[in-house]
Amino acid sequence: MSSQSESEQSPAVKTATPPTDRLGRSATVAGVATLTSRVLGLARDTVLAAIFGAGNEMDAFVVAFRIPNLVRDLFTEGAMSAAFVPTFTKHLALHGKASAWRLGNNVLNALLLVTGVLVIFGIVVTRPLVTTYAGDYASVPGKLDLTITLARVMLPFLTLAAIAAAIMGMLNSLRHYFIPALAPAAFNVATIACAVLLTPVMTAIGQPRIMIVAIAAILGGLGQIAVQWPALRAEGFRYAPTLELRDPGLREVVMLMGPGTLGLAATQINLLISTQLAVGQGTGAVSWLQYAFRLMNVPIGLFGVSIATAVLPAVARHAAVDDRQAVSKTIARGITLMLMVNVPASVGLFLLARPIVQLLLERGHFLRADTVATAAAVQCYAIGLVGYSAARIASPVFYALRRSRVAVILSTITIVVNLALSLILVRWIGFRGLAVATSLAAIVHGVLALALLRRQLGQIGGARLAMTFLKIGAASAVMALVVTVATGELSAWVAGAGTGAQLLRLTVAIGMGLIAVGLSAKLLRISEFDEVIDRFRGRLGIRTLR
């Protein structure tokens, strides 16, 4: 491992408090990269919907990928954010890069070892695991066996995603946000390329067409590592195949990863519950929910994950020097930025769900009935958008504050709420009830997380956050009225079912909605909304960021 200069290792350099404005800039940088990745994600879903629709093949893929992806989300991304990022950031701030690199190297090798064992074990027990999870698939000839085969092919994605998540954590701690947020685009590019170019090859060699998407998942995992590795090397990291089990930093990460996995498990386990219950709702239900939540991931990624990505390292730096006032300000600022965009986004998604789904997905094997069902699921998920994002920002903060027990209790409550609501609502309104239950559970999670953070920190600007929420809610109500009227009028002015007519109607409706919410925000004097617009314009080169 290469030596570092004195300036690089100096704790004084690392403990300097960054300007308050830096959080917004970091979130914007992450948001731009995330936007690119999410747009490619939408393109990926458009391609998959056209080729596979919402039939048995896609149902099988969704369930098969849910298994390694769930473990990845729980064991790597969630726990990595909760345990590794604060610990790595603390080493960086207090001891310099050499200590941080040693910790990073140990974590990478520990992940290789542990996830490798999990992958081998998973391949052995795939059949009973999938049968337990999706036993209703056995009623459709070949569907259960296909799901088992796809799951075995994709299990190594767990190891690749674990390494990618660790690299992302190190880069975020070093205030690199663009490349890590862009890395998931590699997964989308691999899926699109393989689905478009190689699907006929699968048929020619006697394999199910959907198999190429499973292979693409592995290629995408490799791509996420390849995209980030040069930036990490440029910072001075050098990998070594060594594992120091007695490293105090590694032990700290391991001690936090258990609670971290449980504390951040709510969303993933809730989706797992929804998927399992949706299996019994007939062909297409699993795919409809998957497509709908993928659409929801665009605003969640842009305005929840990107802000959370910037908040966590900043909070960890402040917590390392016990600056609780700065922690409170950072959290309040992150939640405020999220509300400015997610409240209008949730209203817009609810109102425009059907034309959005129709434009993006309704082609090829994705039929009008699929559009109606998926749009209904989007509306149900949109209810919980603010809750998802608030929980995504607030929950990891408990680990930076060494209050992991609070996050575990919150996650447990959320899972119980979701399970109870899912069992009730699925019998009442079918697969849509599963989306509603997930959204309501997310709202409970977000509200409780913020309330308990306030209790831990004394204050997080609750009165101002409440006023901001009310004001942006009022502005969003005006937007809803404008969009509803505009949508009705546009249907008469711009006739036709072609892609061009759909795009024009949707673009005009969204544009008028944005103008309405912007003017309303001006009249209501929501200063934070102006700041969000300034940052967006600045990133487009229209105006320099202040």
Q: What would you call the quaternary organization? A: single chain
Distance between the termini: 38 Å
Helix count, DSSP H or I runs of 4 or more residues:
23
Mind describing the biggest β-sheet? Answer: none
DSSP strand count: 0
Shape: globular
Total count of domains = 1
The percent range for strand residues is: under 5%
Give unreliable regions as ranges: 1-20, 538-546
The level of helicity is over 70%
Report the C-alpha radius of gyration, rounded.
23 Å
> Which whole number gives the mean pLDDT?
82
Order of helices and strands: HHHHHHHHHHHHHHHHHHHHHHH
Estimated structural class: mainly alpha
In words, what does this structure look like?
With 546 residues, the chain is an all-alpha fold. The chain has helices spanning 6-9, 11-15, 21-52, 56-95, 97-124, 126-133, 143-154, 157-173, 178-182, 185-204, 211-234, 248-263, 266-279, 285-320, 324-361, 368-382, 385-394, 397-400, 404-429, 431-457, 462-493, 499-523, 527-539. It has one domain. Mean pLDDT is 82; it is low at 1-20 and 538-546.
What's the structural blueprint in terms of helices and strands?
Blueprint: H1 6-9, H2 11-15, H3 21-52, H4 56-95, H5 97-124, H6 126-133, H7 143-154, H8 157-173, H9 178-182, H10 185-204, H11 211-234, H12 248-263, H13 266-279, H14 285-320, H15 324-361, H16 368-382, H17 385-394, H18 397-400, H19 404-429, H20 431-457, H21 462-493, H22 499-523, H23 527-539
